[in-house]
Amino acid sequence: MGKKKNIKVLLVDDEVEFVNTLSQRLKMRELLVDTVYDGPQALDFIKKIEPDVIVLDLKMPGLHGIEVLREIKKSRPNVQVIILTGHGTDADEVEARKLGGFDFLRKPADIDLLVAKIKEAFQEKLERTMTAIAFAEEGMFDTAQKIIKKDE
Amino acid sequence: MTERDRGQAADVDGAPENALFIRFIGRLLGLLSHELNNHLAILRESIGLADDILSARKMPEKKRLDDVTALVRSLDENLNRPIAIVRHVGDLSLQIEQDATDHEADLMVDRLLSLIQRMAIQRKIIIRKSLAGHSLRLSVDPLLMQFLLFALLDNLYSALDSGGRVTIDTARKGKDYSIHITSEQTLRTMPENEPWPQKVLFDTVKRTGGTLHYGEGGGTITLTFPVTESR
Q1: Cβ(A19)–Cβ(A11) under 8 Å?
Q2: Domain count along chain A
Q3: B49 touches chain A (CB under 8 A)
Q4: B6-54 pLDDT, tens digit each
Q5: What is the ipTM, given to two decimal places?
Q6: A35: domain range?
Q7: Which among A44, A83, A148, B187 could disulfide-bond with B159, CB atoms 3.0 to 4.6 Å apart, if both were Cys?
């Protein structure tokens, strides 16, 4: 039996205290958590490390979360993104889903719900990656690329 | 002038200002609900974390106690800002109900700056305020003054790159009360019609008997209102 993989989560939110407290709670639930405090930091982070799931706020200084999501999906299409916001509009939700966002939660969210969504998002990433690998092994590189880039 | 008087005055004075006033109140509510919601989220996560720590049987007893004690202290500190917001909102609603000339000018400026703190934080702009502390009453309706100050700052912030610094000073100059806004950074563009149309702002200031002046490049703004009484 393979070793259980810890899910790598990146939290992106400008509310430092909120993000640090949430990070501790997720770590206590055996998730591997990194934190950054704005969009540009998140984009820099994913250049070096690919998280499995990103939990992303929308209203942040500098770059709005929707723009961050758009950039994430360009460079790391397989990474699953959950929006966690206090003030997202219905239009934001539609746009986030159109851009390939995995889910859209309102802040403050129940920790058990958030963890469940992170696990679902991770499962989605795994399945997508496995399917893409299977097609690639069959020599169907175009199909594999399409699966990887489905969210774009 | 009471809230009802204001509504009647707006009908007479014209729709543009009235519509902008409603937009101003809407923006204030949005900023405050966003900030309160963030504090509620922090409080909820902190309580949740305290519960997690108390349930973590593998953690040594002393560490659990120390961590929960630190959390309870941080909860107490985190309540300060929501309490201040609620107090300011209460004061604002009383201010709207009371006679318009029965207000201290500096207090009105300070109340607005406190309520819109988040607007600067969202744009990573640092505000330094230096209020004269004079006990002055103005002929202008304080909510109108707060609206003008809000709109001018919002336009200025929109013309600044993030990380800018803005100084807000107030002073008594002869028969006028002046609010002087200075950006320490060169503006990306002149603060023009976004988000608040300049023409309506100039017209509104003129109607109050005050003046609005932009320095070269738009980085300094001076707003004055006539003083009716000093105590």
Answers
A1: yes
A2: 1
A3: yes
A4: 444 444 455 667 888 889 999 999 999 989 999 999 999 999 999 999 9
A5: 0.79
A6: 8-121
A7: B187
